[in-house]
């Protein structure tokens, strides 16, 4: 069984998706790993970093997106049209071993989920609705990934910012989580909030199951060596080192690099679009460090 890794931060705009797609690409291209990226964010940034909007629109028309897999859990069909194997886009960006479950701009209706679980609670005579909800979020992604979990060396879950149902399910399903952070106070607050939430998640499930997710590490992104901002960034980073210790923080940092942003326009990661750029070299080093940590 391979590693399931969630990329998460309560704060948006910290380079979470960029980290996901570039590490996934490096694992497949440079290390010969079989990797699946699962886009859990309705902004579908990971999807559009690996395929064009036209390709995405065609797959959505065919119902070959993550939305279909969620629908099968919430309102199952007697004879499903697609399996997860049908929905996985293989060899994205022409990289052997790099696969994608495309996200969707509309994943699920919170009201429908609540109504479904309320009905289940009544049928089971379960007075504590929280128990039913916890059970659902714990098994949701696990059920979806079960048929293919052993087919991959790495499954990387690109979570939405915040703490919604799919992020909680991703954390409950994963072996590890990666925490990208910009060296600025609000991003650091996002780290602390996520740590607190994961502690609460483990506590709320402990009566029925053990959630055994571990932090793989904090990755500083968008780091600048500019004289003025660099000094300020280092002050913020020193606080994180004090709170978490050196072993929890990756030595490799992703610098500010316009090539990383420009790569999005080509619908492929910067490590493919501009492999000699500073950002690409940082992702290559980061991936090597990740493998050593594991």
Query: If you compute it from the alpha carbons, what radius of gyration comes out, rounded to the nearest whole angstrom?
Result: 19 Å
User: Which series of helices and strands comes N to C?
Assistant: EHEHHHHEHHEHEHEHHHH
Low-confidence stretches: none
The end-to-end distance, rounded to whole angstroms, is: 14 Å
Report strand %: 5-15%
| Structural class by secondary-structure content | alpha/beta
Tell me the strand order in the biggest sheet. Answer: 3-2-4-1-5-6
| Strands, count | 6
SS field, number of helical segments: 13
Main sheet record: 6 strands, parallel
Overall geometric form: globular
Q: Give the helix proportion (percent range).
A: 40-55%
Mean pLDDT: 89
What's the SSE blueprint?
Elements: E1 3-7, H1 16-31, E2 35-39, H2 45-48, H3 53-61, H4 66-74, H5 84-87, E3 98-101, H6 110-124, H7 129-145, E4 154-158, H8 165-173, E5 176-181, H9 185-205, E6 214-220, H10 227-244, H11 258-263, H12 270-273, H13 278-293
Parallel strand pairs: 1-4, 1-5, 2-3, 2-4, 5-6
What does this protein structure show overall?
The chain has 294 residues and is of the alpha/beta class. Helices cover 50% and strands 11% of the residues. The protein is built from 13 helices and six strands. Strands 3-2-4-1-5-6 form a six-stranded parallel sheet, sandwiched between helices. Helix 9 links the parallel strand 5 and strand 6. Helix 1 crosses helix 13 (278-293) and helix 6 (110-124) crosses helix 7. The chain is globular and about 60 Å long. The mean pLDDT is 89.
